[in-house]
Amino acid sequence: MKPAVIALTDVGVRYGGVDVLDVPALEVFEGEILAVIGPNGSGKSTLLRVVGLLERPTRGAVRFHGTPVDARRSLAERRRMATVFQQPLLADMTVAENVTLGLRFRGDAIDEARVGRWLERLNIAPLRDQRARTLSGGQAQRVALARALVLEPAVLLLDEPFSGLDAPSRAELLPDVGAILRQDRVTTILVTHDRGEAQALADRAAVLMGGRIRQLDHTARVFHAPATEEVARFVGVETIVTGRVIAREAGVTVVEVAGRKLELAAAARVGEHVRVGVRPEDVTLMLPTEVAPLSSARNYLTGTIVQLIPSTPAIRVVVDVGFPLVATVTARSVADLGLAEGTPVTAAFKASAAHLIGLGRTVSG
Amino acid sequence: MDLFPLWLSLRVSLSATALTLLVGVPIAWLLARRRFPGRNVLEAVVVLPLVLPPTVLGYYLLVLVGRRGPLGQALASIGLELAFTWGAAVLAAVVGSIALVIKSVQAGFETVDVQLEQAARTLGRSEWSVFWSVALPLAWRSVLAGTVLAFCRALGEFGITLMVAGNIPGRTQTLPLAIYDRVQANLMDEANALALVAVGIVVVLLFGLSRLARLRY
């Protein structure tokens, strides 16, 4: 395993007698992108300030490359990190001058070629001599990212860097940043409340709720095998039901839920009561036909639409199949299939799309 | 007319203001930015000089720096005497005015966006440099306002000064004490002239600087 760049041990932060952060252990390994996701106020930014040596925790130790560090004293270590906040926080000077700010504050020589390279990589080279105050939000955030990346930091800390942007700027910036981080293997901690950003960028994801890490695992596992119902709801698993395992055959677990039989790919013991979660985007809706379609989906549940909830980018459809099952469907499909409240439909999903909640590993490297 | 009280008052007030800034600004920074045990106590102690009777403050200062006081004895051992000197008048003015500097500057620091300080830190600035290059420049209006208020308060200091520095003509008789003396001696013309000078200095400072820097107190 690669060495840990950052390691937190028994870190806690208390404000006015309230625990806002309680992290017994957290390691960030070289070259990985770790997303810290959680609802607003869950302690994400506090965690990032502690890691970034901007705030001294109430208790616990922070290590950087194995050396204990302290927010007040470890200027040299803090200078090996770079941070981008939600607000670009540029100085009132040109783009190029802003990008070299960190180098100048560190007393480093300004390598023009290196600065030029980062301006290119973030697609802001043409803006080089423009004043920062004339930039759009997206451009300004690119400058802030260039200012951080030009330092070639040992750890890059991103605190909701895309949250302040309009949707088109965000959609352009996200893949650009992803490409740079992957190509250079920049060790990164990304704090975000946006699950999509975590899925798009992160190797591992930590779900922080109420100041505690509820799950830390490979991003795909966090989103597909959430450790608890709370985590499941946060990562977008909308249908969560209780059932009993009635059979286990040929790699498939059969769970009875409200009189319906669901087939799951995950393993469980017969007789066990389990919680089953299904992500709405994994559910396909079709109009009932005489002949069952040939497909690899193991679960076909007939029911009636009880509610259509408009949301972006798709419409959420609640189908009563003995229990409420949520599916996301595009507006176009809703129109083409004539879906409305009371429409009888068949909801289909694969055995691998139905997850057992709370049986997965909760913490893993 | 003897102008000694005017010059003494200016000298005392300027020295006191400088000392007040030197001590008050770091305390204001601590109160605005740091959490530490005893912070609430410090916050309360800081405003005490504003609410305690000046004679009470003066009494305790005299106990402290008087010939038999702990600080007085320490100073005496190195050949210094503070009580009933112009230095004691400076001390009185510092005690009387420091709360104004601390409160004003603290409020100023509190309005500085912490994110800007954090951004400077993430760009590699040291704590010292964050203070001088970010916090202080952004809070300078409050610092200036606090300075003006402290200077005016120092200039008007009466009760504490009387207790700890006395009212010795030609040595520790400051402008306010001189006015009091003139009134007692029924020298109303002199009292009037000195009072006008005091009013003039304060008005020029308060209004001139507030116009210049658009200060709000």
List keywords for this structure.
A: 365 residues, Rossmann fold, OB fold (Dihydrolipoamide Acetyltransferase, E2P), 2 domains, five-stranded antiparallel beta sheet, globular, disordered C terminus, B: 217 residues, mainly alpha, MetI-like fold, 78% helix
Overview of the molecule:
The complex is a heterodimer of chains A (365) and B (217). With 365 residues, chain A is an alpha+beta fold. Chain A has two domains: 4-233, 3-Layer(aba) Sandwich (Rossmann fold), CATH 3.40.50.300; 237-356, OB fold (Dihydrolipoamide Acetyltransferase, E2P) (Beta Barrel). Chain A is 25% helix and 35% strand. Chain A contains eleven helices and 20 strands. In chain A, α5 packs across α6. Chain A starts with a strand and ends in a 9-residue tail after the last strand. Chain B has one domain: MetI-like fold (Orthogonal Bundle), CATH 1.10.3720. The model of chain B has no long low-confidence stretch (mean pLDDT 92). Chain B starts with a helix and ends with a helix. Chain B has 217 residues and is mainly α. Chain B is built from eleven helices and no strands. Chain B has helices at residues 4-33, 39-51, 54-65, 70-77, 86-111, 114-122, 127-138, 140-156, 159-164, 175-184, 188-213. In chain B, α6 (114-122) runs antiparallel to α7 (127-138) and α10 packs antiparallel against α11 (188-213). Chain B is globular, with a radius of gyration of 19 Å. Chain A binds chain B through residues 49, 52-54, 72, 75, 78-79, 81-83, 85, 87, 89, 101-102, 105-106, 147-148, 151, 157, and chain B through 115-116, 118-127, 129.
Structural class of chain A: alpha+beta
- Determine the N-to-C terminus distance of chain A: 9 Å
Low-confidence region ranges of chain B: none
Low-confidence stretches of chain A: 360-365
Q: For this structure, what is the CATH class of the largest domain in chain A?
A: Alpha Beta
The percentage helix of chain B is: over 70%
Mean of residue pLDDT of chain A?
Answer: 92
- The shape of chain B is globular
Helical run tally of chain A: 11
Helix content of chain A: 10-25%
Q: Strand fraction band of chain A?
A: 35-45%
Number of domains of chain B: 1
CATH topology of the largest domain in chain A, by name, is Rossmann fold
**Which word captures the global form of chain A?**
globular
Order of helices and strands of chain B: HHHHHHHHHHH
CATH superfamily of chain B: MetI-like
CATH superfamily of the largest domain in chain A, please? P-loop containing nucleotide triphosphate hydrolases
Computed CA radius of gyration of chain A, to the nearest angstrom = 24 Å
How many helices of chain B in DSSP terms?
11
CATH architecture of the largest domain in chain A: 3-Layer(aba) Sandwich
Query: What is the domain total for the residues of chain A?
Result: 2
